[in-house]
């Protein structure tokens, strides 16, 4: 893959323009910070684009493996769980088959 040249660094004015389009009000400090952050993101994307992927087959789905199987997750299997009594047997306080905890929010 040919190396791609970066056009230019993301400027503070570019961020201000994007903020105006998105109707965001940013402070001067935020404009400077976001310009640096966005420029770093663009650098990372440029580095990723340089990776040689010629021998990597394209995938049709994000969870597809190299053998073409789409689901790389295990099958859902129903297994026995704790009963309410077992789950609550060591709770310091319980009420109507639920853990009872101190109220932290007012009505």
From TrEMBL:
Allows the formation of correctly charged Asn-tRNA(Asn) or Gln-tRNA(Gln) through the transamidation of misacylated Asp-tRNA(Asn) or Glu-tRNA(Gln) in organisms which lack either or both of asparaginyl-tRNA or glutaminyl-tRNA synthetases. The reaction takes place in the presence of glutamine and ATP through an activated phospho-Asp-tRNA(Asn) or phospho-Glu-tRNA(Gln). This is Aspartyl/glutamyl-tRNA(Asn/Gln) amidotransferase subunit C. Residues 88-107 are annotated as: Disordered. The keyword Protein biosynthesis applies. Residues 88-97 have a biased composition (Low complexity). Signal peptide: none annotated. It catalyses: L-aspartyl-tRNA(Asn) + L-glutamine + ATP + H2O = L-asparaginyl-tRNA(Asn) + L-glutamate + ADP + phosphate + 2 H(+); L-glutamyl-tRNA(Gln) + L-glutamine + ATP + H2O = L-glutaminyl-tRNA(Gln) + L-glutamate + ADP + phosphate + H(+). Residues 98-107 have a biased composition (Polar residues). GO terms for molecular function: asparaginyl-tRNA synthase (glutamine-hydrolyzing) activity; ATP binding; glutaminyl-tRNA synthase (glutamine-hydrolyzing) activity; transferase activity. It comes from Corynebacterium urogenitale. InterPro entries: Asp/Glu-ADT_sf_sub_c, GatC. Its EC number is 6.3.5.-. It holds the Pfam family GatC. One of its GO terms (biological process) is translation. Heterotrimer of A, B and C subunits. The gene is gatC. It comes from the Bacteria. Belongs to the GatC family. The keyword Transferase applies. Keywords: ATP-binding, Ligase, Nucleotide-binding, Protein biosynthesis, Transferase.
């Amino acid at each position: 893959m040919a190396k791609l040249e970066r056009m230019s660094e993301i400027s503070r004015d570019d961020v201000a323009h994007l903020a105006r389009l998105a109707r965001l009000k940013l402070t001067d400090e935020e404009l400077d910070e976001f310009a640096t952050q966005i420029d770093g993101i663009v650098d990372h994307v440029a580095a990723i684009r340089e990776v040689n992927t010629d021998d990597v087959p394209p995938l049709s789905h994000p969870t597809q493996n190299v053998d073409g199987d789409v689901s790389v997750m295990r099958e859902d299997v129903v297994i026995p769980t704790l009963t309410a009594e077992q789950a609550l047997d060591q709770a310091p306080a319980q009420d109507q088959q639920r853990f009872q905890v101190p109220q932290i929010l007012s009505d």
